[in-house]
Amino acid sequence: MTDFEPQKRALVQLRQRLIRTVGALEDAIREDVNAPGTISNVPTHPADHDAEGIDKNIALAETEEGLLEQVEAALARIENQTYGRCQSCGNAIPAARLEALPYTAFCVACAAASESAGLR
Binning pLDDT at 50, 70 and 90, where does residue 119 land? Predict the structure, then answer.
């Protein structure tokens, strides 16, 4: 059994950072949505309001939440002793890949195959 303690520590730290980041982004989205507008007698269309900041925060929150899900799944794989094995082919994931992407569930070949299949 390989010792994945360094990866587990990295994953726990990453999870904590992601939880804080997602929380901050969600707070920013709520503030943007609930921000008081300018008072005017001239009616405005909702499309006239700048939604770019909200859209950007929503996209960032979705990305960070997706990464958080991957981190949680990796921690679960460590607990059930399937961490370090490709979820697609079952081969060992190289240590260098796990060091670079401790949340990865796939070896390089399977990740590349999955990405190219998704691009079609």
Answer: low
